[in-house]
């Protein structure tokens, strides 16, 4: 089935692009001499784990359920980090994970001596107190952060009772979000300054540099990353791990949606069967505006002055009279398989039709963004949001009884194969 024929809403994962990303990651891992893990918190489509497992060294989890999924479906190295573990889950977590990383010394003291942890490599997350990003919601080094042990706290704990330290065989440090390797370099400098002497401890065998590395992005400086990792390995004689999430499926997915209706209230709003609140929560949380195939993003129209400014540029901000327009152009589904880069240069320079894209939930702020097109868009047309494999399926919800998008995989020849379809029973099953 072609992507233009599938029912909406739907997530479609492009296996050709996914494998391109995986090849890059495998090459980087081999050249740097490090191990690369899938961060399941970003992408947990386990139907693709056999493919991912051919290129990566394993998976990392944020708790028991992800840890079980990695153990069952990836069956390679399995790591877990959680800010705090539940006592009744600890034995099972240790039984399915090779590495268990603790967020505090108190958690190490509580669990490291359990028989279930005897054969597990235990780690401690540290906080280098080095912010390199602007998104406070995703900054583990922000003031009063709950994530990781600061050097001051570690030294205090060691002074009081250093018995826990002999149980630790690795350190974990995660500070990045969608960043290049220059930010990693800054982070590593801070890490070494504060924790270098602990990395030199004889029992420390590995260093996990967390995620947030946009390794498969076109402008990512991979050579710098390779140099950083090699130097760390040589200096401290440790195994180095990276656990990217977004980089695995970056630009490898679409959210396909249909226009259900339009509302003209000064600015034409298209109502979709997809929702920012339900199907792409990061749009509202971060916030950000997702790329849309065949359209360009417009800065958020906040008031009448913004609207008039667009109209002065010759853009149409209200729906055209259908009786005077030709049949809708719609999106061109043949472009979808080749548009993952977000390059719209072949779509024409003039995009005169401006629309706000929203959903049919009752949340007034459930707005995806404002976009301009080179043709009118009408009810019945399909739209293709890009880069929708990551932080989408893992975060969606059924607010307002919205249907969960079905999940599809797109083969290299463009054929789409259904992986999972959701219905009323899935909605009902999450309630009581």
Automatic annotation (TrEMBL):
Q: Identify the keywords attached in UniProt to this record, alphabetized.
A: Decarboxylase, Lyase, Pyridoxal phosphate, Spermidine biosynthesis
The reply to whether Lyase figures as a keyword in the UniProt entry is: yes
The domain of life for this entry's organism is Bacteria
* GO biological process terms on file: lysine biosynthetic process via diaminopimelate; nor-spermidine biosynthetic process; spermidine biosynthetic process
Q: Where is this region: Disordered?
A: 317-345
Positions bound to substrate:
246, 282
Record SUPFAM superfamilies? Alanine racemase C-terminal domain-like, PLP-binding barrel
Supply one GO molecular-function term. diaminopimelate decarboxylase activity
Q: Which cofactor does it need?
A: pyridoxal 5'-phosphate
Please verify whether the record's keywords include Lyase: yes
Protein name (database record): Diaminopimelate decarboxylase
Give the source species.
Answer: Eubacterium cellulosolvens (strain ATCC 43171 / JCM 9499 / 6)
């Amino acid at each position: 089935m072609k992507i233009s024929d599938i029912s909406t809403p739907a997530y479609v994962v492009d296996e050709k692009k996914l494998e391109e990303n995986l090849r890059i990651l495998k090459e980087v891992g081999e050249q740097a001499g490090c191990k690369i893990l899938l961060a399941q918190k970003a992408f947990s489509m386990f139907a693709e784990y056999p493919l991912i497992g051919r290129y990566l060294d394993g998976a990392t989890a944020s708790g028991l359920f992800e840890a079980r999924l990695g153990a069952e479906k990836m069956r390679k190295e399995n790591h877990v980090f959680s800010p705090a573990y539940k006592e009744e889950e600890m034995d099972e977590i240790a039984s399915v994970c090779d590495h268990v990383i603790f967020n505090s010394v108190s958690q190490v003291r509580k669990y490291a001596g359990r028989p279930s942890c005897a054969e597990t490599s235990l780690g401690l997350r540290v906080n280098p107190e080095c912010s390199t990003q602007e998104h406070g919601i995703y900054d583990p080094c922000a003031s009063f952060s709950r994530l990781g042990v600061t050097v001051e706290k570690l030294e205090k704990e060691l002074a009081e009772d250093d018995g826990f330290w002999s149980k630790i065989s690795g350190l974990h440090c995660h500070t990045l979000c969608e960043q290049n390797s220059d930010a990693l370099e800054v982070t590593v400098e801070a890490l070494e300054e504060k924790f270098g002497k602990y990395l030199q401890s004889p029992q420390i065998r590995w260093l996990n540099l967390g995620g947030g590395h946009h390794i498969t992005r076109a402008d990512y400086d991979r050579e710098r990353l390779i140099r950083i990792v090699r130097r760390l390995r040589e200096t401290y004689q440790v195994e180095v791990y990276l656990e990217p999430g977004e980089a695995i499926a970056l630009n490898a997915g679409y959210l396909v949606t249909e226009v259900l209706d339009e509302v003209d209230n000064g600015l034409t709003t298209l109502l979709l069967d997809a929702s920012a609140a339900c199907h792409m929560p990061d749009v509202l949380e971060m916030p950000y505006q997702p790329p849309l195939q065949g359209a360009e993003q417009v800065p958020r129209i906040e008031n009448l002055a913004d609207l008039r400014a667009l109209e002065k540029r010759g853009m149409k901000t209200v729906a055209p009279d259908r009786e005077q327009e030709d049949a809708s152009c719609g999106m061109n589904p043949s472009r979808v398989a080749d548009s993952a880069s977000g390059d719209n240069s072949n779509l024409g320079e003039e995009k005169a039709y401006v629309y706000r894209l929203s959903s049919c939930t009752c949340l007034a702020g459930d707005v995806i963004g404002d976009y301009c097109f080179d043709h009118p868009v009408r009810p019945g047309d399909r739209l293709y949001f890009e880069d929708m494999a990551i932080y989408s399926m893992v975060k969606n919800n059924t607010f307002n009884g919205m249907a969960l998008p079905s999940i599809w995989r797109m083969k290299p020849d463009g054929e789409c194969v259904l992986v999972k379809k959701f219905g009323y029973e899935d909605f009902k099953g999450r309630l009581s």
